[in-house]
Design a protein that fits this description.
single chain, 344 residues, alpha/beta, Rossmann fold, six-stranded parallel β-sheet, 11 helices
Length: 344
């Protein structure tokens, strides 16, 4: 019997969850009869509100679904939804345990994300190597559904209409200028462009464009407030909006400049051009934002730092590679931004 109801498991992180969206758009477009239940964290559920025939189940891994007993409770709840298939787009301990509970239900088809750990380890080893691009993460997601019997083509992807802009009274941006989003932070220092260099980029671009800064939490907001106060055409959106409104603000941008981080993926989901800056990581590992030209990814000078990439996630910085991102000159970022803004 063909599957009609698919459980999609992807709990974190934000960027990886965001990359699921184009795949699910294509899946539903190709197979409109399907019902989808996305199992993810509460704060990510807004990402999937646009999708028809899709509901989001939000487990609580802090209380109700914590530990082995909590995961069994989650299993019983999901089983009651009568799925025909499970797409594990995460493949971590929690999802492995969940799959083990479902194992006796042989009539429920299961497919799992191939993380290609061995190939990633080879590409991040501390020696010179040939950068052979791995299968992009978003295509790996698509392969999971293909193994379930639902092949899709990402070439058929269609972006939804742009959502309404949220109230911008708190930011007071100039609506007569093009808007550039800048997200200067990353989860790990190994993939964060030095703030003094990013400030030079912001200072130049704000002369002719409206720059909107994106960050997370009080500490980042405090740092970015300095820039917003120093430059006329810079506004700080950090902690100003709820997540759904922030997404609608991102959708209004003409360009996003981000690290190898979630903001780039969020912008790409709305067909916004994204310039991504890479440090210890590299786009060849498969995590570049969806639909972006290769030239939109700026990487450090590998003649000076031949072992790059040295980390899959940016959480490991090899000795002597702390300043690798300084070889990405602000001039390169600015020139690429001006080229994209001129041609769009």
């Amino acid at each position: 019997m063909a599957a009609k109801h698919i459980l999609v498991l992807r709990f974190s992180a934000l960027g990886d969850v965001a990359m699921c969206l184009p795949v699910l758009r294509c899946l539903i477009q190709t197979y409109p009869e399907l019902r989808i239940t996305v199992v993810t964290r509460k704060r990510f559920s807004v990402l999937f509100e646009e999708l028809p025939n899709t509901i989001v189940f939000r487990p609580d891994f802090n209380i109700a679904n914590k530990g082995i007993v909590g995961l069994y409770r989650l299993y019983k709840t999901l089983l009651a939804a009568k799925p025909n298939a499970i797409a594990d787009l995460h493949n971590v301990l929690r999802t492995k345990i969940l799959r083990s509970y479902f194992a006796p239900r042989f009539w429920i088809r299961k497919a799992v994300l191939d993380k290609s750990r061995k190939a990633k380890k080879q590409l991040t080893r501390a020696r010179q190597k040939t950068l052979v691009p791995l299968v992009p993460q978003i295509h790996r997601y698509a392969q999971v559904f293909e193994r379930l019997g639902f092949p899709i083509s990402l070439n058929s992807h269609e972006f939804p209409p742009k959502p309404l802009c949220p109230n911008t009274e708190a930011l007071k941006p100039d609506h007569n200028k093009k808007w550039i989003g800048v997200a200067p932070f990353a989860a790990h220092k190994g993939k964060q462009y030095p703030l003094d260099l990013m400030q030079k980029v912001v200072a130049f671009l704000q002369q002719d464009y409206q720059v909107i800064l994106f960050g997370f939490g009080r500490e980042e907001r405090a740092q970015l407030d300095v820039w917003a106060k120093a430059y006329k055409n810079v506004a700080n959106a950090t902690s100003v909006y709820a997540f759904d409104a922030e997404l609608r603000l991102i959708a209004q941008l003409d360009l996003m400049i981000s690290m190898d981080s979630a903001n780039g993926h969020l912008a790409a989901n709305y067909n916004i051009p994204v310039i991504s800056l890479w440090g210890a990581t590299h786009p060849c590992l498969g995590f570049a934002p969806f639909g972006q030209a290769d030239s939109n990814s700026l990487t450090p000078n590998r003649q000076h730092y031949p072992f790059l990439p040295t980390s899959v996630y940016g959480n490991k910085i090899s000795r002597g590679y702390e300043d690798a991102m300084r070889t990405i000159e602000p001039k390169s970022v600015i020139e690429l931004a001006l080229e994209i803004l001129t041609n769009n």
